[in-house]
Design goal:
single chain, about 180 residues, alpha+beta, two-stranded antiparallel sheet, 7 helices, 2 strands
Length: about 180
């Protein structure tokens, strides 16, 4: 028998409209259905039931997931095309006086501009999914018209024998003159 992750007392809490905003935020943050259920102290089945029963709740679940997907697409695009960012390094120094006492601590910040080059694997993945008809690996090519694939094997055989005989006679003439 499976274990329940929710309200151990039985009946789940009643749905309230205030849960809609919370569920949208939680899904946008990347929380799973199990985490959302635990937050509301219900079983995951109850979350699905509420999503079916209350349109706004179901839309909030979907909206949060859509936000997650958009963030991933944006990140993939940045990775596929390359990007720059600023890195800030913090360095701390303690300045001491003549008698060895620490007078003050100085913190210095160093800003460095970093460049991440485009990633071809990410670019290929993005293009194959955004425009599969242009960028997929397999292309279907259709041929229209008539193709005649008859071949005169006897004529080819005679031609090969003739070329062989010419080569043999050329070799024997070369050997005889040497």
């Amino acid at each position: 028998m499976g274990t329940k992750t929710g309200n151990p007392k039985g009946r789940p809490p009643r749905f309230t409209p205030s849960m809609i905003q919370v569920v949208e935020e939680m899904t946008a943050e990347g929380k799973t259905i199990d985490e959302i259920a635990a937050h509301f102290n219900v079983d995951r089945v109850t979350i699905f039931r509420w999503a079916k029963k209350y349109d706004d709740f179901g839309k909030a679940l979907k909206s949060g997931r859509d936000m997650q997907v958009e963030r991933v697409v944006e990140s993939l695009f940045r990775r596929a095309t390359g990007y720059e960012y600023e890195e800030i390094e913090q360095h701390g120094e303690t300045i001491s006086g003549k008698n060895g006492q620490d007078l003050r601590k100085v913190t210095r910040f160093k800003k460095t501009k970093k460049h991440v080059p485009a990633d071809l694997g990410s670019a290929a993945f993005l293009l194959k999914n955004l425009q599969p008809e242009r960028f997929r690996d397999k292309h279907d090519i259709e041929h229209s018209g008539n193709m005649n694939l008859t071949y005169d094997f006897l004529a080819v055989k005679e031609q090969l024998i003739e070329e062989r005989d010419d080569d043999i006679s050329t070799d024997s003439e070369t050997e005889g003159s040497g």
